[in-house]
TrEMBL record:
Catalytic reaction annotation: 7,8-dihydroneopterin = 6-hydroxymethyl-7,8-dihydropterin + glycolaldehyde
Pfam families: FolB
Keywords, in A-Z order: Folate biosynthesis, Lyase
Biological process according to GO: folic acid biosynthetic process
Assigned EC number: 4.1.2.25
Family in the record: Belongs to the DHNA family.
Pathway: Cofactor biosynthesis; tetrahydrofolate biosynthesis; 2-amino-4-hydroxy-6-hydroxymethyl-7,8-dihydropteridine diphosphate from 7,8-dihydroneopterin triphosphate: step 3/4
Molecular function GO labels: dihydroneopterin aldolase activity
GO annotations of cellular component type: cytoplasm
Domain called Dihydroneopterin aldolase/epimerase: residue spans: 1-58
Name under which the protein is recorded: Dihydroneopterin aldolase
Domain of life: Bacteria
Length: 63
């Protein structure tokens, strides 16, 4: 997971979260559902935000 977060840059937090969730489901067969929250401190967007975050839940597709 470290390679995903520290590797190739992503433009959107959603893309990082999706990649992490997909990787966890692919690597760990016993995991049926995963929730991933990604937080970016001091985002480069207009306004005064300490951080922004996205949280997603993904389930294994059965069949």
């Amino acid at each position: 997971m470290k390679k995903i977060v520290e590797g190739q840059p992503f433009k959107l937090l959603e893309a990082v979260a999706e990649k992490l969730a997909a990787s966890i489901l692919a690597l760990y067969e016993k995991v049926a559902e995963v929730t991933v929250k990604v937080t970016k401190p001091d985002p480069p967007i207009p306004g005064h935000y300490k951080s922004v975050a996205v949280e997603i839940t993904r389930r294994r597709k059965n069949g």
